[in-house]
Amino acid sequence: MSYRCYIVPPHLLKAIGESSHNPDTVREAARAALQSHHAFTAKRKSHIEAVIQSRHSSRAPPPTRPFVPAHVLRHISESEHVDEEARARAARDLEHTLHLESRAKHREGETQLATEAAKLGKDAPQRSIYDAEHTSSQRQLPGKLVRAEGDKAAKDKTVNQAYDNVGTVLEFYKDKFKWNSIDNKNMDVISSVHFGQQYENAFWDSEERQMVFGDGGEFLSNFTGCIDVIGHELTHAVTEHTSALDYQGQPGALNEHISDVFGIMIKQKVQDETSQNADWLIGEDCILPGVKGVALRSMKAPGTAYDDPRFGKDPQVDNMKDYVTMYEDNGGVHIYSGIPNKAFYLVAKAFGGYSWEKAGQIWWKTMRSGKVPESSTFLQFADATVDVAKKEFGEDVAKTVRKAWDDVGVRRSI
Questions:
Q1: Which among 233, 240, 284, 328 is annotated as catalytic?
Q2: Which CATH number characterizes residue 119's domain?
Q3: Whether residue 228 sits in one domain with residue 164
Q4: 255 shares its domain with 402
Q5: Lowest mean pLDDT: which of 77-86, 134-143, 383-392?
Q6: Do the beta carbons of residue 7 and residue 66 sit within 8 Å?
Q7: Of 5, 62, 9, 6, whose CA–CA distance to 335 is shortest?
Q8: CATH code of residue 388
Q9: Which of these three, 37, 68, 102, is where a domain ends?
Q10: Are 204 and 237 in contact, with CB atoms under 8 Å apart?
Q11: How far is CA 42 from CA 17, 195, 330, in A?
């Protein structure tokens, strides 16, 4: 089973579809796209069960998760605060986003290919950047090769940003966590830029094993220039090779959370920010001027990233008291990831210094500890981080980690 998680989540698309600030035609298109998504979700559930059964042996590819969530596009497509052309583009991109989420295909022979690649004994991953030339068809990807590993800079700024920032993410994993590329076996990383027409999203395609970047439009852009976006998306692939969390409910929210954690650490590394000085904003550099918001998510204060009539208000929550069972967005994976996100922020802030020095090491070693099942709940994950913290850094550090989880309501019932 393969599907995509866009950096713009479904709840934002839903908000676009329900906003009175958007015209009827845009809202109808958004609702229609959302209906198709719901129909596929039921089919996907039974398929996921089969994938989980074989994941340990076959390591089926993880869901593809684009950066711009669906609910953002839906809200734009129905907003009366934007022109008809912008709404039409948003509706088009929404339809494409939901189509990608519903697409699935068999990957026969993948395990064999992975085994053969591992036998090559590569010393380093190779980066390749392709120009999609604005195609909206995955069948035409990756496109035209523009820059390969070791080539001099291209004339296209977007190509160079993708090349450099993918390299920065890979170097961060290698330097801070002794992890080589996505799979720890120096897997090559392919990226396609200029996908679609003013496509306001970016994602890791788990079927084709590559990054895909749109150029953006009226509200969201600069995806190749957002290091946290690239860190977030590539971490979804890394998660497959550490603790392969399911993509539904609490384990799905943890999956999103892990990508945010490593995306934010990479951003802080590039900007040389300590935990105390960082803004803890995800997708900050993707929001264009004029949008009433500062980012797509805030790890420091979930639910405060944006509040725009065309987008709706940031629906993330930061405490288990606000957790309710839901069916949209795969059980709210983009909404409830705010709870563990806040916990990580509190841990890193309490330790001081750089986030990857202690907090990041605990999270990383937790993901590799074997203590995180595919169906992990927040509490199971919290317990695992406390155990790892105690083993690696001692009782006092473990107490700090436990307090952070308690503060966001992830605690054992008395």
A1: 233
A2: 3.10.170.10
A3: yes
A4: yes
A5: 77-86
A6: yes
A7: 9
A8: 1.10.390.10
A9: 102
A10: yes
A11: 21, 29, 10
In a domain, 155, yes or no: yes
Higher pLDDT, 37 or 151: 151
Q: Which of 102, 134, 159 is where one domain is finished?
A: 102
**Is 412 within the bounds of a domain?**
no
Q: What is the pLDDT of residues 347-392, one digit of tens each?
A: 999 999 999 999 999 999 999 999 999 999 999 999 999 999 999 9
pLDDT tens readout for residues 83-118: 888 888 888 888 877 777 665 434 433 444 444 544
User: Is residue 376 domain-resident?
Assistant: yes
pLDDT surpasses 60 at 13? no
- Would you state the pLDDT for residue 61? 54
* Residue 334 is a catalytic residue: yes
Type of residue numbered 105 = K
Burial class of residue 338, CB neighbours in 10 A (0-12, 13-18, 19+): buried
Number of domains in the chain: 3
pTM for the complete prediction? 0.82
User: Would residue 106 show up in a list of annotated catalytic residues for this protein?
Assistant: no
Work out the average pLDDT over 17-46. 52
Angstrom distance (rounded) from CA 217 to CA 412: 45
Q: Which domain holds residue 58?
A: 5-102
Is residue 287 helix, strand or coil? strand
Tell me which of 37, 71, 257, 334 is the catalytic residue.
Answer: 334
227, two tokens: 């290091």
Dump the DSSP string for 153-208: PPS-HHHHHHHHHHHHHHHHHHHHH---TTTTS---EEEEEEETTT---EEEETTT
Amino acid at 96: H
The DSSP letter of residue 292 is: S
